[in-house]
TrEMBL record:
PANTHER family membership: UPF0102 PROTEIN YRAN
Protein name: UPF0102 protein SAMN05444171_3489
Similarity comment: family membership: Belongs to the UPF0102 family.
NCBIfam families per UniProt: PRK12497.1-5, YraN family protein
Keyword field: Endonuclease, Hydrolase, Nuclease
GO MF term (any one): nucleic acid binding
Species the sequence originates in: Bradyrhizobium lablabi
InterPro entries assigned to the protein according to its UniProt record, in alphabetical order: Restrct_endonuc-II-like, tRNA_endonuc-like_dom_sf, UPF0102_YraN-like
């Protein structure tokens, strides 16, 4: 029998309904954004690429262009655009460096940071070069 310190294992706290709804909305928005990119001739290389520095919603490729895409879903397109904050941009740029370290075959590609904005009753809006990596 194994020794224990008497502490009970911590149980996972169930996610709130609002958090679950937000997660589902995010997944749906990312799927719509990926479909939009594929319709424009991009190939999706990764979804939700995670690093210790941050997450990239979508990584896409078109010829020798590698695009790191932030997807934002909000009630209004303007709100979605403002949600891509400078702090978040820095985290995405750091995560992109992580992608390039794991995928050196893309090191010579041109890089771009896009945003795709999703709002109810609107077509998704694809912002090319929404921000750049110069800080």
């Amino acid at each position: 029998m194994a020794k224990t310190d008497g502490a009970e294992p911590a149980e996972a706290k169930p996610a709130s309904p609002a958090r679950v709804a937000a997660f589902r909305t995010g997944l749906s928005a990312e799927s719509r954004a990926a479909a939009l990119l594929m319709a424009k001739g991009y190939r999706i290389l990764a979804k939700r690429f995670k690093t210790p520095h941050g997450e990239i919603d979508l990584v896409a490729k078109k010829r020798n262009l590698l695009v790191f895409v932030e997807v934002k879903a909000r009630a209004r397109l303007d709100d979605a655009a403002y949600a891509v904050t400078p702090r978040q941009q820095a985290r995405i740029i750091d995560a992109a460096q992580g992608w390039l370290m794991v995928h050196p075959e893309h090191a010579e590609f041109d890089l771009r940071f896009d945003a795709i904005l999703i709002a109810p009753r609107h077509l998704p809006r694809h912002l090319l070069a929404a921000f750049d990596a110069s800080r």
